[in-house]
Amino acid sequence: MRKIAGAAVLTAVEMRAAEAGAFDRGDDAVAMMQRAGHACAAAVGRLSAGAEVLVLCGPGNNGGDGYVIAASLAAAGQPVRVAALGAPNTDTAVQARTGWHRPVEALGEAFPAPVLVDALFGIGISCPLDDTVVAALSRLGEAARLTIAVDLPSGVDSDSGARLGCPAPVDLTLALGALKPAHLLQPAAALCGTVRLLDIGVDASATAQVIGPPTLPEPGPQSHKFNRGMVAVVRGRMAGAAELCATAAMHAGAGYVALLGASMPGAPHALVRRRLDDEALADRRIAALVVGPGLGRDDDMRALVERALASEHALVIDGDALHLVTPEQLRTRGGQIILTPHAGEFEALFGRSDGSKLDRARAAANASGATVVFKGPDTVIAAPDGRTRLAPAANNWLSTAGSGDVLAGAIASCLAAGLDPLAAAAAGVWLHGEAARRCGAAFIADDLARALTQARAALT
């Protein structure tokens, strides 16, 4: 059982393909189910501290895992009962059922236990839960002191993270073999509790991964302010947003940060103020140029965005600037571009879609040729080549004005340090989340920007 940083994220189809690959290498479904069940049982046994466990088994392979869990716990002397929704309906689940030699209770009639294990559906559900199942899960979950889901809480869509009916939240989810999008996408992620990964012997390599602590370059004896990375931030109508962004870039590790345009008193003395003119925009020392925070959306600002696009710099495009460009324009421009839209900005730029957030981010990156940071209560980062990174749940206090400006500055700092756009975006998102964790509660964006120093120092 390990933490999820860096883990592969597989859709249901990809997970089944990974399992099929294991079968092609001489493994079999029964052996894999046994490994999964025994790994879950070991985790449940450690966490339950000898308390009675009630395992809920569904008719498919998730239920088969449940029977193996129950049999393994019983063999170890743990008090355990099984309640089932119905008879197993897959060959491997039928075989797993034969290993449980004790009574099986009906789900709707089962008595509660201190520890509840949900092995009803996992990734194998695509329609809303029946009301009787919802009622049973709620009743038994509310009576338990610890609730654990096998692979996924019953009642969420594995690929989109959507609720299928009214699923009950759990305290811990044991992901089998790989993370699934629902472990990271809302609203499902909020139902999963703590997520931990169990190895079941499949090759879980994937183009999608969970972000983790990044590897960032450290200054050495030959370092100076420019080779550590120069970030320039374009100031727009709201100076405070651009100054927050610039401050964040400094605290995230940039060696030199310039604010292009007039600055208000109170900005850090280390922030260089320069006129916003063609000479400043053409400065070849700029390693990352940020345009958009507090920019405004009038014709003058549209012309300013076009001037930024005409430069040869790597770009971070945020905020209002996302309303002033098109995917076609970005693809034609090319080069290193990172977009940081929230949901409203994303729809303004790429339109609406019924696809999952993961699918939409990938489609947007492909359409624009840019790396897309689709931010929000869940954050998906997609590169044009299909590589994707997903962020685990962050501090809910990030829902404060200016936090997006801070994120843009953190990403720009990482981009200026020489990371490729996907790595820079993922590193900036990680630093942003770590800074928020260190701030705790009721912080403002200014606090968040300053806390990037401690978040950056945590990597050394």
UniProtKB/TrEMBL annotation:
Its EC number is 4.2.1.136, 5.1.99.6. One of its GO terms (molecular function) is metal ion binding. Binds 1 potassium ion per subunit. Signal peptide: none annotated. Its cofactor is K(+); Mg(2+). The keyword Kinase applies. K(+) binds at residues 62, 118, 154. The keyword Oxidoreductase does not apply. Residues 208-459 form the YjeF C-terminal domain. Gene3D superfamilies: 3.40.1190.20, YjeF N-terminal domain (3.40.50.10260). PROSITE patterns: YJEF_C_2, YJEF_C_3, YJEF_N. (6S)-NADPHX binds at residues 61-65, 122-128, 151, 241, 294, 342, 405. It catalyses: (6S)-NADPHX + ADP = AMP + phosphate + NADPH + H(+); (6R)-NADPHX = (6S)-NADPHX; (6R)-NADHX = (6S)-NADHX; (6S)-NADHX + ADP = AMP + phosphate + NADH + H(+). Residues 15-208 form the YjeF N-terminal domain. AMP binds at residues 375-379, 404. Keywords: ATP-binding, Isomerase, Kinase, Lyase, Metal-binding, Multifunctional enzyme, NAD, NADP, Nucleotide-binding, Potassium, Transferase. InterPro entries: Carbohydrate_kinase_pred_CS, CARKD, Nnr, Ribokinase-like, YjeF_N_dom, YjeF_N_dom_sf. One of its GO terms (biological process) is metabolite repair. Homotetramer. Bifunctional enzyme that catalyzes the epimerization of the S- and R-forms of NAD(P)HX and the dehydration of the S-form of NAD(P)HX at the expense of ADP, which is converted to AMP. This allows the repair of both epimers of NAD(P)HX, a damaged form of NAD(P)H that is a result of enzymatic or heat-dependent hydration. In the C-terminal section; belongs to the NnrD/CARKD family. This is Bifunctional NAD(P)H-hydrate repair enzyme. The gene is nnrD.
